Amino acid sequence: MNAIKRNIPNLITLANLTCGLFAIIFSFQGNLTTASLCIFLGAFLDFFDGLAARLLKVSGEFGKQLDSMADMVTFGVAPGFILFHFMFYLNNDMIFRHSMESSSFFFPASLALLIPIFSAYRLANFNIDSNQTDSFIGLPTPALAIFIAAIPHIDFNRFPMFTDIQLLAILAIIMPLLLVVKMPLFSLKLIRDERANSRLNI
Question: What is the pLDDT of residues 149-160, one digit of tens each?
Fold first, then answer.
């Protein structure tokens, strides 16, 4: 029973990871709306794995590393591919899987790959940074992922600026930089006076 109790947060974390994997699959199919819904579900699960760890009073280094790996996929790689495919479509007037190498333009869509690159740096730094106790330093990866995932749900008739490839290219550069900027932000995942490492599970 104790083994089951210890691994409940881990199972929630793995469910988060699964959402990220499906988000990547749907993005390559050009189904960005469903891909973004997977990220929203992953964010929901990401909140509850830490909550479950606190309620069950379980913590450990394994859960910390597993959580970061899941976050890397769901909030780093998956939103990066969603933005890449969206920008690729706008720039080439076709979805990526129907493109021909000789006539496809990967720039500026490739700027979206800065999201997983900077996410990896941020998550690795978060794991070793003892300063992030009652606040996050820089934009949390789930916040960036939710922002990117919201783009396919925008009413582009009312907000046509989000179909501007130049604006998206700027966002693809600025948003990842916010992940690593030395700017303290309030952490919604922390409650009362708990330290950041209380969110860890095993």
Answer: 999 999 999 999
The token duo for 159 is 């907000």
**CB neighbours of 59 closer than 8 A, spacing ≥ 6?**
53, 197, 198, 200, 201, 202
Of the candidates 105, 119, 122, the residue with the CA atom closest to the CA atom of residue 148: 119
pTM summary value: 0.86
Distance CA 152, CA 150 (A): 6
CA distances from 187 to 8, 9, 137, 140, 190 (A): 23, 19, 9, 9, 6
Q: Position of tokens 């493109």?
A: 99
The tally of CA atoms less than 13 A away on the side-chain side of residue 44 is 9
Joined tokens for residue 164: 């501007």
- Residue pair 50/9 in contact (Cβ under 8 Å)? The answer is yes
* pLDDT tens digits, 54-96: 888 887 888 889 999 999 999 999 999 999 999 999 999 888 8
